[in-house]
Amino acid sequence: MKSAVIVFPGSNRDRDMFQALELITGTRPQSVWHTESTLPDVDLVVVPGGFSYGDYLRAGAIAARSPILKDLVAKAESGVSVFGVCNGFQILAEAGLLPGALMRNAGLIYVCKEVRIETVNNATRFSSEFRKGQVWRCPVSHHDGNYFADTETLKRVEGNGQVVFRYAEGTNPNGSINDIAGVTNARGNVLGMMPHPENLVEPLHGGLDGRTLFESLLKAA
Amino acid sequence: MKARVIVTLKNGVLDPQGKAIEGALGGLGFAGVGSVRQGKVFDIELTGSDKDAARAELTKMCEKLLANTVIENYAIEID
Description:
heterodimer, A: alpha/beta, Rossmann fold, 5 helices, 25% strand, B: alpha+beta, Mth169, Chain: A, 2 helices, 28% strand
């Protein structure tokens, strides 16, 4: 499986993502700087975590207007898998590739902890290797992860099965509406999630729960 | 020409920062505060003098960058 990771000024989880992708897919991803105009021909494009542009204006807002986004939108429209984690989720939502928005955590504090994720839809290319209803461990680390969508959007997103991951009962760390931790576009080829599966993929991480997501993508490619 | 863009959260969107400020004002003894909503102000200096053209341009700026219209409203004032 060929993959690429887009790097912005202020990205800081890009190396974790390179490591995880190389470990699980066996191929080193290509690094793409945000000012480039075209993405390489790959099966998966990842927008990694971090604090692009220092979260100025709104988290992800300025990165979402980077030159490379034009081709990312085109790739997404052509069906290529696009995966945004944390700041990557914020960027994809700001770019309009995903429904809703990420707001300041309801508790106002930065959360850096482990949560439990429930896979509520395993019929996507990102989640096929999970069991439906499987609860797994995953770290979160963010200040603006409070997912919001208006009532109409929420109804559509829930109805279409676009909610792939929810925070398992009692572990919602940020006030996200309907405990939404990860959501796809209508077509199902773009996923954004606040938790960091790339940080739980090798024994030294203390667990391997995050591997299943990458294994799903590998199988789909 | 000077313009001011005011971006506020839409009704129904929770504003935890506004809530925290509201609580802090109460803590300082301001008893008459019903609620607080936090927003953003952008003061923008524009070249040119056509106010209608400026308003059209500022609207585009709001739609494209200054506001996230999923959660925010914007208002434009031109001097």
